[in-house]
Design brief:
Elements: H1 27-42, H2 50-60, H3 69-75, H4 77-86, H5 90-102
């Protein structure tokens, strides 16, 4: 009998179970990619506001300990989703949904 904690993201085995293991999900790389996409928008003054300025400081560790990208995304899923919805960014929304489902 094989250990279920080693379940991979093999399509023949079905979706990986995030509650058993994060093996094969590469959540850190996905979170980094999502953060790049968020910063692409919020670094542009046309898309920034007081919240996003706070978010940038929080991401840099200016308001306390620096959070890793995945935790920062987890804490602000709603705001990130709303940003992508407002900008009609379907790829960004898909990234948020995938990270929320598989990594948070």
């Amino acid at each position: 009998m094989s250990c279920t904690c080693r379940k991979s993201a093999d399509p023949l085995l079905g979706d990986p179970d995030r509650y058993v293991s994060f093996i094969g999900l590469d959540c850190d790389a996905r979170a980094a990619h999502l953060m790049q996409r968020v910063r692409h928008y919020i670094d542009d003054p046309r898309h920034s506001n007081a919240f996003w300025e706070y978010f940038k400081k929080k991401a840099a560790g200016a308001n306390g300990p620096r959070l890793d990208d995945l935790l920062l995304i987890h804490c602000h899923l709603g705001q990130i989703r709303e940003l992508f919805e407002d900008l009609d960014d379907a790829e960004g929304l898909a990234l948020v949904d995938g990270i929320e489902k598989e990594c948070c």
